Structures are given as structure tokens and as C-alpha cells.
Amino acid sequence: MAPVLIVGGGTIGLSIGWRLARTGRAVVVFDRAEAGRGTSWLAAGMLAPDAELQFEELELYAFNRESLDRWPRFAEELEADAGQSVDYRDEGTLIVADDRDSAEALRRLYDFQREHDLNVDWLTGEEAREIEPFLAPRLSAAIHAPFDHQVDNRKLIEALKVALQNAGGTLREHTPVERIAPDEEAPAVVLGDGTRVDGSAVVLAAGPWSRGVKGLERAHRPPVRPVKGQMLQLQMELPFDLQHVVRGPDAYLAPKSNGRLLVGATSEEMGFDTQVTAGGLYDVLEGGWDIVPGIYDLPVTETWAGLRPSTRDHAPLIGRSAAPGVVFATGHYRHGVLLTPITAEEVAHLLRTGETSPWIEPFSPQRFTSSTAASA
Amino acid sequence: MAARSASATATRKPASDAPEAPEPLVIGDLTLSSRVLLGTSGYPNPQVMLDAMEASGTELVTVAIRRVNVRDASEESLLGLLQQQGYQLLPNTAGCYTAREAVLVAQLAREALGTDYIKLEVIGDDETLIPDVEQLLKAAKTLVDDGFQVLAYANDDPITCQKLAGMGCAAVMPLGSPIGSGMGLVNPYNLRLIRELVPDTPLLVDAGIGTASDAALAMELGYDGILLNTAVSKAKHPVAMARAIRHAVQAGRLAHAAGRIPRRLYADASSPATGRVGTRSP
């Protein structure tokens, strides 16, 4: 059988490839550069459906939650296949308020979380500092979300690359796909050098760049736009030793086991601009310092601006597209790492059986029928 | 509405000054049938934003030039989505602290979006986001002289508002309370004075609206419209709140034109007392 051709080697594309390869399907994952160095590399690896619960997005919450539930087994299988760790951490997340107004906003979030039976606790500032002693003394209230976990997104990428290839999948890096040639029976991709590669299905998983891949009719292109996020990376050094993901009104901090401490992130409608700006870094640093002042002395080891692939309703596009033979797995916005297990498993299931599972049905790429139509 | 009431009162025409047909809001050369101006930030997602805009009935939506890439109006970009839905864009100078910055941002907006309309916002400090009057007046003067149609976000100070109207701003927009605070109209007395001192320039309450009654009150004070964002975008159900605001603005406008009764200290029975059985003669 001709291989499944996956356009885009981020966490979504690699994991779909890995899941298919380990059941014996031929797959080729194409990445225009080094795989996983786009959105996935520049993320924070937070698995935080409870903290990120949003008004008017309850369907997405259920999907996020299911994916989180699948994460521990996914991580275990991936680590076994790859022979390396993804640094799954289950210490939990603290969402904190740093003044009266943000405490009110936090209380509103907590009430909404409780209304939907989320497993979260309301803490005083003192109680929160018993859990995480590096929180600023002036913080007055916090929500503890013990089931919001994290992984190291960079380790995830490294592991997926190895696991994909160990399972017999092919990874073609520095190989841009110029064009998709849709066809129900024999879709293909055409590479930058003009080579045509035939497949049994094409999966478009190119994140924010998904719309730029040629070959799809205008109305069939994935409705994805980039949303810029600026972040910085600090190196934790003793005595500083943060253990939990901490989310404040203006920034979050995500500590990884190897000492990486990610502080992010802005959310900007700037198209494909990836300039790091003074204001972006200032906002993120101030927001981080307000809630965990101990970061003051830590060395800054990296700064960047990444692009999130966002759709109009902030939910992903997963499943058959309107283009024959082309499946979308893109538009994961801020939840790509969290949604990796469910996306990989359900898309692999779709490609193996032809069935769209009830899990991904609400996220059909065809819910936007044209570029201007509202969601169903 | 107008048609229905006209047929219901077919035998007697309403008095000439009775408020029946909704009048458009005219700002400069712009004629709007909706008196709601809506901001574009902070919604749960862009789809909710578009749905809320539709529910509010707004035609003019404001976009922070420093917060979006004005060169990117591609199909799925924020600007692209707004333009495809047929909204007129009102660029704003949010995030500017000096007159000079605000003027440069306005010029950039004019060049990129091809509109002379600008919501002028010159902020004095980032905790209160209250305008810096000195810088605001300076920027407004420069922009009006440069041919801009300036909608000036202002303090609720009658004299400042009068000066802005006097120098030729297309609309003056005093705050009800600080941006995003949802505190409503904290000084309705000043807002009323502003209306009296600025009878001929469109006045909108911009900032501070927390819920529908705040919008209705602004309209009852004789304002021509409202500009709001957070009350809708951060409501638990933004689309429902947008619809509520639309109705509140219509209700408030109608109530203002209808002419409220004076307040009395003591009750005044609404049913006639004369001729009632058992009514004692004095």
C-alpha cells in the first residue's frame, strides 16, 4: 500500500506518523526544515485544560480533557518506543491572583470551573505558598489544578522523531512540500524540487503554515491564521527551584526537569511577524516577576516569538477536508502539545478504518464551509 | 417598528416631535444606523467576536493599530475577517502616551487602512488608562488640522470635551469610568453637563460600560451612542450581552426622546380619585 504522506513534522505530524508506523503502515513525514523546530519547539508544553477553561468553549474543554487523560499512557508508549524521556510532570498547576481585581477575576474562573465539576481547589495565598514556596508573598489567592500537568515539548519532539523512525516510518527533513495533489484514490504531494510522491492519503499538519501549501482550492484551504507569542527561557539555578507550573494574570512560568524555565507568552495578531520586541519581553518578564520574584537573578538563555495555528473558534481542524484524499490535522492554537495524543490516535484510526470517531467529529475541517461562513 | 406604530395609529398621526423612526447616527460623513460601536479585543475567540458584533447590530468596530498587523488583511487575519463581514474599521491609537506617538500611529492607520477616521486615545498612565488631557488636546488639534475625522476618547471633564468639540473633532467620547473597569457611569452629573456644553457634536460614552443598564443610562442622558468592548467580550455569554446592549441603547434613546417625568418627593396616585365610591368631599 502506498504510504500516508504527512505534510509537517511538528508534534502533530510526527505523532500521527508514529502511531501509524507502529501498526505497520508506511508513512512519510515531510518537514521543510528540521522537524519540530516551528510551533512545537517554541511552545511551553503545558497540559492544562482546567486552567485554560474558557467561557463558550465547553466542547473544546471535553476534548482537551480526554486528551489529557490519554497522556500518561501515550508518554509511556512513546518513551518505550524511543528509549528516551519526555519529562512528563504531574505536580499540578497553580493559577494565582496578584491584586484585588485579579482575585475577583480568579474567583469568577473558579466558580465557572466548579459549575462544570472540575477538580480544582481554592487556596489562600498562604496555602498556595505551602505548595509552592517560590510564589510572591503578596499573592492573595490561588486555584490549585492538580490534574493540569506538563511535558518538555522539546524532549517530546526528539522522542517522536526517534520513535517514528524506530517504528519504520520515514522522516524527510529539509524537504518542503510545494503542493498537494488531491485525489480520492491516489493523492500525492509535489516537493520543492518538482518530485511527485504518490500516497494513499495526505495529512496536512503544517500548523500556522497550513494555508500556504498550494494545490487546494481556495474554499478548501484550512482556515488557519498565525497568532504570535513571545516567550523567554531562563535557566534555573539553586537556590531557585520552582516545581509547579504557575499562571498569573499576565504571564505563566513552566519549569522543566533539566532546569529550563519557560516564561510566556504574549498573544498578538501580527500575521507571520516573528520579531521579538522590547514591549513583548517586558510584559512577559514583569508578569512573571510579579508572581515569582525569585526569577530576578536567573540567566536568560533564549528569547523568541512563535506562531500558534489558530482557527476562528480556537478549536482544531481534524478529519477529512473537502479536498479528496486530504485529511487535516492542524489549527490546534495553544493546545497542540495537549492535543497530541487524541489527534494522533483519532487521525490514525480514521486513516486505518475510514471512520471518523465521535471525538473528532465536532472538529471537522468542513464546519467552516467557506472562508466567510460562520461555524455550524 | 416605525411602520407598525404608524398603522396602529392610522387615524391619528403622532405629534411631529414624537420619537418614532430611528434616526441614523451621523459622524462626519459617516451615517450609521446602529448607535453601538464595538471593540475587537478580549473575546473567547474570533467566531464569538463576529457573532457578538452581529448581535449588537454594530457597523463600526474599533481596532488597536499597535496591536494588529495593519499590513496583513489576508483572509483569515483579524482585519480580513472583519472586512469580509462588511464592518467599517475605526482604527484607534491605544497604547500611545504622547501626542507625537498618537499622531504618527494615526497617520500609519490612514495610510494602511485608507480611512480618515481615527479614535484618538492618549493615555496618561497604565494603571488607570485615563487620558492625558494636555497630550490629547495637542494631538487632536494636529490631527484635525491634518484632515482627520477625530473621535476623541476623553476624560469626563466638561471643559476638555468642549475644547475638543470646539477644535472640530467629529465626535467627543468621554469615559463613563476607566477602560475595562465595568464601573458604569460614575459621574452622570458631569456627563450631563458635557451634553449641555456640547449640544451639536456627536457625543458617545466610551469606556466603563459594565452592563446593559449603563448603556441605557448613557442614552437617557442624551448621548448619541456608546463605544464598548470588555462588557461584551468578557461577559460569560458575549453574544447574549451584545444583544442586550443593542436593546438597551435603543430603549435608552427612545426613553430620552420620550421625555421622562419629573421626580417627585411624594406619591401621586395614577388612578383618578374623583367620583370613586366613598370619596369624601373636602
Give structural notes.
The complex is a heterodimer of chains A (376) and B (282). By secondary structure, chain A is α/β, with parallel strands linked by helices. Chain A has 2 domains: 4-76 and 153-223 and 312-367, FAD/NAD(P)-binding domain, CATH 3.50.50; 93-146 and 225-310, D-Amino Acid Oxidase, subunit A, domain 2 (D-Amino Acid Oxidase, Chain A, domain 2). Chain A has 7 helices and 19 strands. Chain A has helices at residues 11-21, 58-82, 100-115, 125-131, 153-166, 278-291, 340-353; strands spanning 4-7, 27-30, 46-47, 93-97, 121-124, 141-145, 149-150, 170-172, 177-181, 188-191, 196-198, 201-204, 225-235, 245-247, 252-255, 260-264, 300-310, 317-320, 326-330. Chain A has an 8-stranded mixed beta sheet with strand order 5-6-4-14-15-16-13-17. Chain A has a 6-stranded mixed beta sheet with strand order 8-2-1-12-19-18. In chain A, a hairpin with a 4-residue loop joins strand 10 and strand 11. The longest helix of chain A is centred in the N-terminal third of the chain and has 25 residues, at 58-82. The radius of gyration of chain A is 21 Å and the shape is globular. Chain B is an alpha/beta fold. Chain B has a single domain (34-258), classed as Aldolase class I (TIM Barrel), CATH 3.20.20.70. In chain B, strands 5-4-3-10-9 form a 5-stranded parallel beta sheet. The longest helix of chain B has 21 residues, at 238-258. Chain B is globular and about 80 Å long. The model of chain B is unreliable at 1-11 (pLDDT under 50). Chains A and B meet through loops of A and helix 2 and helix 3 of B.
